[in-house]
């Protein structure tokens, strides 16, 4: 009984079709309780309609419903709501992962290196002479305010 509930929960929690097929096959092979609820070959054969028995659609449906009515229905298992519980657990775990990642990122960005006021001014930067292709070049130096990054652009003199 506990094994059946475990299988039902695993089936609801994992949406991978090959895993579900394997799970059902293994469970049906090993669980005597579930094997008792399966139809016998004779019962299943009585529900099948052979090509010569078809006739019109209404008569076919009457025969199928009569045959199905003769069989004793299996008692329905009481649902434990396991699928909903697994979905809530997965959603809660995802929310916790997102929240922890957000707090970690906030802690990382709150430290020195991300605040422009915490940066010390760079040492003096000087360019003495620039050549491009063996000839003197025009040079432009740009340093964004509040950073120690320096961009140097050099181009041939026209």
Q: Summarize this, please?
A:
The chain is mainly α. The protein has helices at residues 2-13, 17-30, 32-37, 41-47, 57-70, 82-109; strands at 131-132, 135-142, 151-156.
What does this structure look like?
- The protein is mostly helical and 158 residues long.
- The protein has helices spanning 2-13, 17-30, 32-37, 41-47, 57-70, 82-109, and strands at 131-132, 135-142, 151-156.
- Among the domains are: 79-109; 122-156, no CATH class.
- It is built from six helices and three strands; from the N terminus they run H-H-H-H-H-H-E-E-E.
- A three-stranded antiparallel sheet has the order 1-2-3, with no helix packed on it.
- Helix 1 (2-13) runs antiparallel to helix 2 and helix 1 crosses helix 6.
Q: H/E order of the elements? A: HHHHHHEEE
Helix count from the secondary structure assignment: 6
> Which ranges are low-confidence, i.e. pLDDT below 50, for 5 or more consecutive residues?
none
The radius of gyration over CA amounts to 37 Å
Cα end-to-end separation: 89 Å
Mean pLDDT: 76
- By DSSP, the count of extended strands is 3
Overall geometry: elongated
Sheet-strand content, in percent, reads 5-15%
Task: Give the strand line-up of the largest sheet.
Answer: 1-2-3
Helix content: 40-55%
| Biggest sheet architecture | 3 strands, antiparallel
- Secondary-structure-based class equals mainly alpha
List the helices and strands and how they pair.
Elements: H1 2-13, H2 17-30, H3 32-37, H4 41-47, H5 57-70, H6 82-109, E1 131-132, E2 135-142, E3 151-156
Antiparallel strand pairs: 1-2, 2-3
Helix pairs in contact: 1-2, 1-6
């Amino acid at each position: 009984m506990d094994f059946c509930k475990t299988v039902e929960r695993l089936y609801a929690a994992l949406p991978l079709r090959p895993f579900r097929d394997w799970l059902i096959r293994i469970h049906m092979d090993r669980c005597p309780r579930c094997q008792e609820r399966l139809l016998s070959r004779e019962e299943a054969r009585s529900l099948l309609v052979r090509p010569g028995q078809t006739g019109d659609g209404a008569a076919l449906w009457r025969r199928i419903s009569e045959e199905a009515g003769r069989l004793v229905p299996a008692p329905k298992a009481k649902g434990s709501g396991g699928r909903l519980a697994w979905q809530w657990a997965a959603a809660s775990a995802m929310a916790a992962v997102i929240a922890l990642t957000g707090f970690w990122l906030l802690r990382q960005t709150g430290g020195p290196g991300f605040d422009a006021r915490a940066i010390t001014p760079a040492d003096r930067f000087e360019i003495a002479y620039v050549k491009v292709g063996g000839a003197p070049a025009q040079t432009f130096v740009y340093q964004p305010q509040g950073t120690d990054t320096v961009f140097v652009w050099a181009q041939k003199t026209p």
